[in-house]
Request: fold
Amino acid sequence: MRFFTYAICVFIASLSTATSTLARDTAHQRTEPLVIETQREPMNAPEISASMFQAAAADTTVLAWYQFDSPAGTPDPQGWTARDVTAPSGTHFHVDGPACHGMPAINGAKSLWCGQWASNADAWCSWVALPGYGNNWDQRLEATVSASTVSYTIEWDSEPGYDFTRLEWFDSTSGQWVEDPNGYYDGVGGPLSEVRASPYGPTSVRFRFTSDGAYSDEDGLFSTVEGAVKIDDISIDGGPVEDFEGAACEDNIIGNWSASSIPGFGL
Reply:
């Protein structure tokens, strides 16, 4: 009798659990969708041409409409101006010194400086600190004649371990510019007089300054006094010394030396 009563209880409990489970699962079933989308008719003429914003047409005011196509189907900027944000802010190796903006020269009244002087112009007014250098710079000063040796005096001020001034020689075999094996300049140092010899014989030579994407005078996270680098008294193969005293302020092509920066790649 006890066994029969126990069996009945187990059966009733199992039936109750199954019923509860069925009811719980059924409660989550819906016969109607939670969201009903109602198609709206276009209200503005520009919206008629299969725009993805048709649903907002009833309460949208169109101020202007640009498709950047001419009637013939060719690209048309329609009055807009493009700006390549990957392009450099300019060529920054240039003649400077007390005779120009007042920056101290290494020797005499002028040196060649890779940097930007204080300015209220649009390109510089947002910088935290000037004079100095910016983020993502890639500036070059290249000799227009071949060289086996180059002597110079250099002074530098740039974020150590990340922003560098290098002397580079062109390897005609690989077609690549190669850093001088005697090393680079970073942190703060100089004036230092150096003589470097080409590992490839007579070839092209250049100074190159590069900075990464942060910690410069531009963002103020690494503020310099007169960064990034100043160069003076350059001589190729023991020849005449270029001291920049006869060059005009801001010149970036002086004697056998020409400054440049990398082009942008966004447009």
Notes: Residues 141 and 259 are 4 Å apart (CA to CA). The longest helix spans residues 2-27. Confidence is low (pLDDT under 50) at residues 1-30.
